[in-house]
Amino acid sequence: MTSMSIKFFQRLSTQISLLVGFVGIAMFVSLATFTITEQTAENRHVVEQEVLTTAQMMQATFDRVVRYERTDLLHEILSQLQDQPNVLAAFIYNREGRIEYAADHHWLDKPLYQALSIASQTWHELNANSDITLHHVEDQGRLIVYVPLTVSSDFPEFRPFSLMIAFEQKHTFWSVAQSRLTTLTIQLIIVLLLVALLHRYLNYRISKRLGHMQTGVQAMRDEQQRVAIDVRGKDDIAALARQVEAIAAERHAHWSKLKNLETAVDQSNECIIITDAKGQIEYVNKAFEWITGYQRDELVGNNPRILKSGLTQQSVYHELWDTLNQGQTWRGELLNQRKDGQVYTVYSIITPVYNEQGECTHYIAVEDDITERKADEQRLHYMAYYETLTGLPNRLHMTQIIDQALASLEEDELGYLLLVDIDRLQQINDARGHEFGNRLVQAFAERMKQWTEQEGVQLAHLGADLFAVLFPPQVSKREVAKEKLYETCEALLKITRKPIQLDDDVLTMSATIGAVVYPQKGGNAEQLLRRAETALHKAKRYGGNHFAVYRQQYGEEIKRQFDVERMLRHAIKNDELDLYLQSQVDATGKVVSAEGLVRWHHSEQGLISPGVFIPIAERSDLILSIDRWVLQRAAQILASKEIAENPIDALSVNISARHFVRGDLVHVVSKLLENYHFKPQQLMIEVTEGVLIEDTDKVIEVMRELSKLGIRFSIDDFGTGYSSLAYIQKLPVSELKIDQNFVRSIGEKATHDALVETILSIGEHLDLRMIAEGVETEREARFLTERCPTIVMQGYLFAYPVPAQEWLASFSPNCSTTRSK
Questions:
Q1: Tens digits of per-residue pLDDT, 448-459?
Q2: d(CA 433, CA 427)
Q3: pTM over 0.85
């Protein structure tokens, strides 16, 4: 390519040189022609002057010859004249044109025009002049001179004579040119030499350098990083070469950026498409090919309508073009169709491109295939708003449905919400497994669907065994709505009691329903659900297959329990609880032990009964905190100076069953023994028989660990709960505590007395310490001591519970109680 470019410029310089040579030669020829022409004209003028002088001299000579009558000399004069250089002929002729005198007698009396070989007309024209006249015969190279001979009137015979002289014209154009041939040849050689030198100069100074320039431009076109043009000097071409180098560097940098941009665009994961102002596709990247299934050559030149699926609403296209025509960027979703016919969704960003004149020249679209994301969103939406097990709306979705129903309520419209809970589902899961339980829930859901479809109501699955049924509002009075609600609940309970067949199993189901009428005062969806749940919990107290309708007092009771729980947390945190001690005496009335009873003195409400706050604490984690507080307070009492000086047999405290299963009871007691150094056998932990129902193995393990530490255990309220002698034999129990309900019935019925005697007999045979609580009469005390002399009694007959400090202050060796009247 380089040699071709150099040859091109060499040819160019040759052509320029030839052109210059041609112009030079043309100018040389023109100048030479002009010079020769001027020289010829000048020579002719000189010849004409000489001829005129000769003619005048001949005119004067003829006049003298005639005057002196020497006409005989005319032939000799003409001969001499004809002998002069450049004179071809000379004749004297008369008016008729016949030659009278001639150097050659042959021509005498001959017509003049024949002797001079001129036309007769030319002779007549010349002869008509009265002055000397010159006539050039160019084709013959002659000059004819007409000389009228004037003589004195004394010689009339000579007056009509005229002289005609023919001169040879040697000073013609070509004769002058031939005379200057050498000079012209030298001048032509000089011109050609200058042309050769010009060609050499052009070839060296222009052609070769321009060839290097073209090589540099070619290198620039070939995207070479560095372009060096071998052109030296400070002239314009060198300056142009430096500019080309600079342009090449800038172009390469710009090209590199464009190349990087093109690579980035072409390899981008997002689909990129560029169209002209008419919408014809000019460019698509690889991602666009991959997503659409079309090849680039199939798309370029086509309109993006090739991807149209027909599923995108026309309003979207109208909005798209309205936005683009306003010069703004459009963003939105489009449903397109791949080459194989598959529909996919793209999120498209389309931007119009304008030139400097403000005209839209192109459109650039960046598209992201969001088909999978949309599917994920639909799946997430389904997971967020529907229960996967039954396909029914979940709690979140049902909350929105309820809110919409509440928002659309008209005056005097009432509706109701039902929460339906499957009875005994947990027991079925434990017995048959969760897979079977899930199938059962699905079958129950199908039954509910069939029923709700008939009723035209909304069904939802709030999770596990709980379903919700929303009845749309209707214009009705509240009493009529409640009556219809009762009928609906009865009908639904009847539906739930129908047997369900799963494989070979036929199960008889039942459900519990909590219902609420809406609207409620200040109620939203969550509050309505909570009130329905409150009614459901109320119905569950009556066992399964029952329903309850929410009443205001239910909510007040729940609110009161919530307030108590909140205040109890504050009380535990701020040490507002107190431990009371109630003495326990032997048959003689001597104080041998005591029971610790927790009390709560509220700053505003006063003393709050344990029967109020202990059940609330049992339903939350607060009972564990209360247990830890009671154990710590008991450890402080057992480690006190009063007990150290006057030891007691035991200090009993009640510990929740939850602490045995889920708490850290062993660790708590160990730390208390380590910190307070009391005698572990003095701490008697009372447990109810119900603790054995929670997790028997775990309870036994904890009790044995504590027994190793020296801690003793008492079975509280023995005979009222899960009384199993087999478990009592396994447990490290030191004491049985007869429930006060048995004690208060002493003497009323023989069967009651027999039960008490049986319990006393069990304790005696198992060698357990026996204690009776709730002893309030002498009859009860006498009955107990007569049948068990070692029994320990506790009750208002002997002592009331008093604050621990007061009890310790009144405690002394061998002290006894004064029985109440």
A1: 999 988 777 899
A2: 9
A3: no
